[in-house]
Design brief:
With 64 residues, the chain is α+β, with helices and mostly antiparallel strands. The chain has a single domain, classed as Macrophage Migration Inhibitory Factor (2-Layer Sandwich), CATH 3.30.429. Helix content is 36%, strand content 28%.
């Protein structure tokens, strides 16, 4: 039973998330085999001020 975790910035629409999880599920099944109902995906929305790369907050790098 694969479990995928995707962390992304807050602000994506439900439709975008729906499309993403369907594409990830379809791709996993196509490449690795198995059944779609065995694929679990967890989406975690993270605020830009809670995400940093190379010592820089993403809120500073990508202000709204």
């Amino acid at each position: 039973m694969p479990i995928m975790t995707v962390e992304l910035f807050k602000g994506r629409t439900r439709e975008q998330k729906r499309e993403l999880v369907q594409a990830l599920t379809d791709t996993y099944v196509r490449v690795m085999g198995g059944r779609p109902d065995s694929v679990t995906i967890i989406l975690s929305d993270v605020a830009k001020e809670d995400w940093a790369v190379a010592g820089e907050l993403m809120a500073d790098k990508y202000p709204d």
